[in-house]
């Protein structure tokens, strides 16, 4: 049985006020860091994080944890859209994270994950077989000039709740 993203969750993610309220209630660190979903569909999710006083490190660039938070949200929002309000509840959990940094992040950084369709197959497999499945999603971070700043790989585990 195929799994499709929840249109309701995608509308929530693309609605600025509802997204801010969601972040404030469920991910307050992301809210106060200025992390925002800029664009989301069933195939991709684009998230931004600004460079500002609350996200800086002592080296005048964005703190790595703030970059990781934005990158994780770009993959996690896609995962959440697949399990949101499902009749058969599915849990999701990060089991591994890898990161690589290429440039200092000194302005707004945009993280994009394009793995929505492949992630749908992993969630469908977890539901159809009843066995936990893992999926590694890639999120690439670009600066305002379009240069790659960082790359994150998050391995998600999907398991049907009993």
UniProtKB/TrEMBL annotation:
A Pfam family it matches: DUF4442
Alphabetized InterPro entries for the sequence: DUF4442, HotDog_dom_sf
Superkingdom as given in the UniProt entry: Bacteria
Identification of the protein by name: Uncharacterized protein DUF4442
Source organism of this protein record: Pseudobacter ginsenosidimutans
